[in-house]
């Protein structure tokens, strides 16, 4: 497999001198093209911060992050935002959608900001994505008129508009009931099967069980890792048990 993203000795802290709080303590990791990875760990262990540094959202760290051969810290602001807009997709716990726009318009908004794109093509692409994720009938709905699961599907459509190489998900199922959470994970799995790498932060072992590699964080370090690559069957209950057992072993 080929590397898509790697981080080397990432150190990130907040505050100064004696008050300094180290949040990422020399994290190194590699994500291959098309991988499906989750990050688990206790609250405050640095999971979201890791996601923000790897995705170029937070540039204040030491060490290096290289995405698709480009060292992020060496890129000018415009180049970094181009890279993030074109090659990375983001899905958050609550999609940040505008209340005065319907679902379709919210999905196409970021793509429309790019003048080079053509309105008709962008709209058609968004409609096709909405169909793919099962919300094609909701395009005119206001964002307050859909369920959390439907809203998250729309968030995934928005993230997929640029055909990214990777989707970063920060607790993408955190605001959902367990049925919707599983549906969203099934959708991310499908997207991953089509070649897009997915990196999700989660507290939920059921969610992590859907991914093929689980990284465990504690106190700003990756302290353990599980790979399900060689499992012949996709027995998610068994994977969940393995994850829970590993969490017990490492005391998180
Ligand atoms: N802007 C900030 N200023 C100061 N400290 C911060 C800031 N952002 C995060 N932190 C601290 O960094 C640590 C790691 O935060 P982070 O959000 O990465 O953890 P997490 O593992 O994602 O937690 P959770 O599971 O609760 O979301 C926490 O102790 C948090 O308080």
From TrEMBL:
Annotated ABC transporter domain ranges read 5-244
Q: Please give the Gene Ontology molecular function terms for this protein.
A: ATP binding
What are the record keywords, sorted?
ATP-binding, Nucleotide-binding, Transport
* Nucleotide-binding is among the record's keywords: yes
Q: Does the keyword Repeat apply?
A: no
> Which InterPro entries does the record match to this protein?
AAA+_ATPase (IPR003593), ABC_transporter-like_ATP-bd (IPR003439), ABC_transporter-like_CS (IPR017871), MacB-like_ATP-bd (IPR017911), P-loop_NTPase (IPR027417)
What SUPFAM superfamilies would the database entry show?
A: P-loop containing nucleoside triphosphate hydrolases
Concerning PANTHER family, the annotation shows: ALPHA-D-RIBOSE 1-METHYLPHOSPHONATE 5-TRIPHOSPHATE SYNTHASE SUBUNIT PHNL, LIPOPROTEIN-RELEASING SYSTEM ATP-BINDING PROTEIN LOLD
Concerning its family, UniProt says: Belongs to the ABC transporter superfamily.
Q: What is this protein called?
A: ABC transporter ATP-binding protein
Q: What is the organism field in this record? A: Blautia hominis
């Amino acid at each position: 497999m080929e590397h898509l993203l790697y981080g080397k000795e990432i150190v990130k802290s907040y505050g100064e001198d004696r008050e300094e709080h180290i949040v990422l303590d020399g994290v190194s990791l590699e994500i291959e093209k098309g991988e499906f990875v989750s990050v688990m760990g206790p609250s405050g262990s640095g999971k979201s911060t890791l996601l923000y540094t790897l995705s170029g959202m937070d540039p204040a760290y030491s060490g290096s992050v290289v995405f698709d051969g480009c060292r992020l810290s060496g890129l000018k602001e415009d180049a970094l935002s181009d890279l993030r807009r074109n090659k990375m997709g983001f899905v958050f716990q609550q999609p940040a959608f505008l209340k005065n726009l319907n679902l379709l318009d919210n999905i196409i908004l970021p793509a429309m900001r790019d003048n080079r794109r053509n309105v008709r093509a962008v709209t058609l692409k968004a409609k096709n994505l909405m169909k793919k994720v099962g919300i094609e009938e909701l395009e005119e709905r206001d964002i307050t008129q859909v369920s959390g699961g439907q809203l998250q599907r729309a968030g995934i459509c928005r993230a997929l508009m640029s055909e990214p190489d990777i989707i970063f998900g920060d607790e993408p199922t955190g605001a959902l009931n367990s049925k919707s959470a599983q549906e969203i994970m099934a959708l991310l799995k499908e997207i991953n099967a089509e070649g897009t790498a997915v990196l999700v932060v989660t507290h939920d072992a059921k969610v992590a069980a859907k991914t093929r590699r689980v990284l465990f964080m504690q106190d700003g370090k990756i302290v353990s890792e599980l790979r399900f690559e060689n499992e012949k069957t996709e027995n998610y209950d068994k994977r969940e048990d393995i994850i829970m057992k590993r969490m017990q072993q490492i005391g998180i």
